[in-house]
Amino acid sequence: MSARTEGRPILTAAETRAAEEAVFATGLTVDAAMQRAGAAVAEAAWRYAGRAPTLVLCGPGNNGGDGYVIARLLHARGVPVRIAASGEPRTDVARVMRGLWGGPVEPLAEAKPAAVIIDALFGTGLARPLDPAIAAPLERLAAAARLRIAVDLPSGIGTDDGALLGPAIRYDMTVALAVLKPAHLLQPAAALMGRLVLGDIGIPGTSSLSEIARPHLPAPGPADHKYTRGHVVVAEGAMPGAALLSAMAAQRGGAGYVTLAGKGQGGPAAIVRRDAPLADLLADRRVGCALVGPGLGRDAAGRALLDAALASDKPLVLDADALMLLEGTGALPGLPVLTPHEGEFATLFGTLEGSRIERARAAAAQAQAVVVLKGPDTVVAAPDGRAAIGWPAPGWLASAGTGDVLAGLIAANRARGLAAFEAACAGVWLHRRAAELAGPGLIADDLIAHLPKALSECSWS
Question: Residue ranges of the YjeF N-terminal domain (predicted)?
Answer without folding.
Answer: 11-209
